[in-house]
Amino acid sequence: MAREHARILCSIWRPGDDFRDRSPEAQRLYFLIVSQRELNNAGVIPLMVSKWARCSAGTTVDDVEDALAELEQSRYVVVDRETDEVLVRTFIRNDGVAKQPNILKSALRIARQIESQTIRDALARELTRIPSRDAFDTAVEIAPAVVQRHTDNPSGKGSADPSVDLSANPSHGPAANPSRGPETNPSPSPAGRGGGRGRGKGSSSVGGSVGGTRERATTPPAEPNLDPNNPRCADHAAIPATERGPDCRACQAVRREVQEHVADDVLAETARRAAWRAEVDACDECDENGKRQLDDGSLTTHHPHPSARREAS
Q1: How far apart (Å, rounded) are the C-alpha atoms in residues 160 and 15?
Q2: What are the structural domain ranges in the chain?
Q3: Are 88 and 74 in contact (CB under 8 A)?
Q4: Which of the pair, 199 or 267, is modelled with greater confidence?
Q5: Rounded to an integer, what is the distance from CA 19 to the centroid of its chain?
Q6: CA distance 180 to 164
Q7: What count of other Cβ atoms lies within 10 Å of the Cβ of residue 225?
Q8: Each residue of 258-303: pLDDT tens digit?
Q9: Cα dihedral angle (188, 192, 194, 196), rounded to 10 degrees?
Q10: Quick check: 7 pLDDT over 80?
Q11: What is the torsional sign of CA 129, 132, 133, 137?
Q12: Which residues pair with 78 in a beta bridge?
């Protein structure tokens, strides 16, 4: 089904946002690319410089090439001129694809069909930042070496991607929004998983009784929002992802912690899978999938895959 609209985040125009540092030509080309019908669910589109030049009177192919080079340098896009493919780098995370399971499955199928290894590598880095087993498996499949090296920078480098709309289903698990999404943000006190805001009961007076005693009702304290798409401190947990919210250091602390946990999970999963592969490769009884053939010809699992172990537990 062809796309009918593009999602652009209004906060790209806030002071200090990297998108404001781009030239008018680069900004316009970015909007043009993300609004093309040919852009697929993985954020990949054929390189069509001549067609894009024809979308505006007075624009030349050289103009488009210059703007494309600027977007490529600032990591808004990844271009492979040998395969004529262009990746909008954070499209899966920031266009709502990762929050829709069926659309994400489509994107992952498309990712496996990408011809350019340069683009497969870049997309694999993005997929490791989505807390989804299928996304991680796809990242390992399309760029195993990149996944292994992706260790210490969960939020990536580069600039915000304006093709973001975090309004749909923020409870679905996909990744922290490293490209800045609606800026999440801070209050004077630190937060995080706990962040000094324990689960102890708070109380509030709800009225008096005979003898001056007061009935007190316990209410649960506010908890930080640990949704990777909208991490906020307890004071601002109710602010939706579509709103920027106040500048708040506590929200920044929550965001950093959420991103660190995503990165830790990726590293742990990489280590588990590497150890499993080593076990299987060293075993004379197993096939490449950790299966052993019994005397009756049937197969049994000799070395369970890490994902199977987690499901069993």
Answers
A1: 13
A2: 10-149, 262-312
A3: no
A4: 267
A5: 19
A6: 9
A7: 24
A8: 776 766 666 666 777 777 788 888 888 888 888 888 888 788 888 8
A9: -20
A10: yes
A11: negative
A12: 87
The answer to whether residues 207 and 214 touch, using CB atoms and an 8 Å cutoff, is yes
CA atoms within 13 A on the CB side of 301: 7
Which amino acid does the sequence have at 38?
E
Report the alpha-carbon distance of residue 263 to residue 245 in Å, rounded: 25
Euclidean distance between CA atoms 242 and 84, whole angstroms? 34
Joined tokens for residue 243: 């709103």
**For residue 202, what are the contacts with CB-CB under 8 A and spacing of at least 6?**
218, 219, 220, 221
- Separation of alpha carbons 220 and 194, rounded Å: 14
What are the pLDDT digits (tens) for 201-248?
344 333 443 444 444 444 555 678 877 777 888 888 888 877 777 888
Concatenating the DSSP letter of every residue in the chain gives ---------GGGGSTT-GGGGS-HHHHHHHHHHHT-TT--TTSEEE--HHHHHTTSTT--HHHHHHHHHHHHHTTSEEEETTTTEEEETTHHHHSSGGGSHHHHHHHHHHHHT---HHHHHHHHHHHTTS--HHHHHHHHHH-HHHHHH--S-TT-SS---S-----S-TTS-----TT-SSPP---SS--SSSTT--SPPEEEEEEE-GGG-EEEEEEPPP--B--TTS-B-GGGTTS-TTS-----HHHHHHHHHHHHHHHHHHHHHHHHHHHHHHHHHH-SSB-TTSEEE-TTS-EEESS--HHHHHHH-
- Tokens 């906060």 correspond to 11
pTM more than 0.70: no
How many Cβ atoms are within 10 Å of 19's Cβ, its own excluded?
20
Name residue 224's amino acid: P
Instruction: Report the distance separating Cα 98 and Cα 258, nearest Å.
Output: 17
φ/ψ of 188, rounded to 5, equals -65, -25
